[in-house]
Structures are given as structure tokens and as C-alpha cells.
User: Fold these one by one.
Assistant:
Number 1:
Amino acid sequence: MIGALWTAATGMKGQQTNIDVISNNLANVNTTGFKKSKVNFQDLMYQRLKEPGTPNAQGAQVPVGVEIGHGSKVSASQKIFTNGNMQNTANPLDICIEGDGFLQVLMLDGTIAYTRDGALKKDSTGRVVTSDGYPIQPEIYIPQDATEISITADGTVSVQVAGNNMPQQIGQIQLARFSNRAGLNSIGRNLFQDTVASGAPMVNNPGAPGYGTVEQYFLEMSNVQVVEEMVNMIVAQRAYEVNSNVIQAADDMLRTASQLKR
């Protein structure tokens, strides 16, 4: 009965983490390019009271043993990189990545971060940046006299300037891929950093084999499905409640045992 108290406590702790992850998913249901997370569980060690194949009193081997588990724990919180829905914005600097790949972003410390958020802007110099002002890589500058911006599926950026009927190519958007996207480190602000687990970035133009294409005037929305998260929340809540009931039942059994009289 003492073991049941601690075993149920591990279940409650794991479901609390599950609820925390679900709440973050729901909080980012409208975050551009957000990727939902999923909690993975695994069972803990077992206490074996009898090994399978142990001979009984008659010399025959018992087919199964006796073992008692000691609960569960959270083994991982995994990002799910399925594509979100596309939303038309009519903004020429909004782009959506259809397929695999991340935009490269230059951080203030000189490192490169990666994002699926294609809500791009211009700074005071005409440089293309994210909503937080971080320039994308390779850098692209929009001329001040540009009257029209065109971004093709392969990432070619061209502009139409006043007094010139011929479009001018001013830059090339490139995408980065990873052998293990789930190993990327989320740092907030819709950004990821590469890790040893993710592998080194592989960079190429959109549309190359294995890379997604770029769609202008669209943004990729969050891939969070509200109904699915609500169901997951109900399941986690009920699992938490059931484990609390186990603790109460074990406590009642201990109380009964402590009240036994000779």
C-alpha cells in the first residue's frame, strides 16, 4: 500500500507535465508557424517477486512470474512538425513554406536561428527582417523606390522599380533542413536552434529535392487542432483524477490496517 502511494504520485506528476504541454499548445493556437508538442511516457523499474520459469514444488516451471511496477515518468516532449493551414494575407512580404525547411535568421550574438514564421518586414534600411527585427539569411534589401515585390516558388526575390519596366532580381531565399527536426531547441519568438541531436543544417534553395517551396502572400498558421487538444486535456485530467483516487484508496487501506486491534 505504501508503494501504491508513490506509484500513483508519479502518475499525477506526469499528467501535470502533460497538462502544461497541452496548455502551451492551446495558448499558441494563433501563433504563426507554431508547432505543437506531444508528451511521451515510459514505465519505471519493476520489482520482481517471482521470475518467469521458476520451478514450483512439483518441479514444473511456472509460465509467468510476479512483478510490480513502480509508476511512470515523462520520457520526452516532442515537437510535431506537420504543416499548419495556409492563410492568405495579401502582404507581399508574407511567405509560407510548403513542405520541409526553415528560414535562417541572424541573431544579435552572430548565431543562426531557424523559423517557420514567414511574416517578414522591412527595416529602415530596406533589409528584410522578422517581426523582432532579426535579418533573414542570406540578407535581402528592398530598394526604397520599389513599387512591386515578387517572390517565386524557388525563393527568387525580384522587384519592380519606378521608371523601369523590367523586374530586377535582388536576392535569393534559402531554406535549411535537418536530419532530425524533433531534436531542434525551441528558444521562443518562433525560433529554433540546432543541436547535436538535430544534426547540422543542410541549406539549399526552395524546390530542391527534399526541400519545400515558397508561397508568397500566405502565412503558415499553427498546426494545433483545438478539438484534439481539448480531448487530450480531458484524458489527462481524468488520468490525474484516477491516480488521486488510487492515493485515497491506499490511504484508506492504511488507515484500516492501523486501526486493527488484537
Number 2:
Amino acid sequence: MSWSSLIKVFSGLFLAIALLAGGGLIAAQYLITKLSAPPPKPIYPNDKPIAKTKLPQPKPVASEKPTDTPDSVEVAAKPLPANAFEARVTQQIGLILRDAAGLDAGQIGGIEYNEKVTVLETSADGEWQKVRLQPSDREGWIKAGNVEKTSQ
């Protein structure tokens, strides 16, 4: 056997080992990536679909306007407490708006993810926050820790 044929055998063997090792690394990386991703949320036949419903707004009552007042009268906004701040909802499934601080309080609506609110106060135990919804000026209580202060 000559030196050139011996070099060919060893280089072929080295190339085969390198290809097997590279393929194994790529396969391992693929499997690790697939197995580390969380599975999608299961959907069961008895699940109710989540519908984005807006609560009906009260209709304005038609009344006669006095003739001596201008047509565009600005309504004064409710005053804000000194410690109030603007925030946005960070809970991705949204929040339940309640009429009082506590899990046993009645539900009066909901707040969607990323919706802007004004945090008016925090309960004495720090578990609940009273908020005012931006467009509708409705007020209610939400579980604390689910909003993030905006930079305004």
C-alpha cells in the first residue's frame, strides 16, 4: 500500500466522521429547539369563545338647548387625586373591572390588554387599585400588579 492511498483512506475516514458529527449537532439543535418551545393552549369543545364585546354606552337624552348658551359646552373632567398616574394594562388576557376591592365584589366590565387607564388610588393592603377608564370615565377596581405606569 502506498502513502497516497493511505492518506486517501484517513482523509475519507476523517471527512465521514466530520459529516456525521455535524449532522448530529444540527439534529440535536433542531430537537432541543422544538422540545423547549411551550405547546399551544389546548382548545376544548366546551370552551366558550372569547369575544371582544364593548359595553353599551348610555344614549344621550334629547333635550332643548337654552338659546343663550353656546353650542359647544365643555364638560369639566373629574378632578384627579394627587397620587394618580396614567398606566396601561400589561395582563395579556385583560382584567376584570369590579365595583369594589375584593374577589367577592361584582363584575362591572373588563379592560383589554394594552388599554390606557388612570390609576386613582391603591387599597390599604396594596392588593387592589382603583382605576378610571380613559375614554368612558368609568371607575372600578382591578387586581394590583397588572398595570404599568406610562412615562407621561
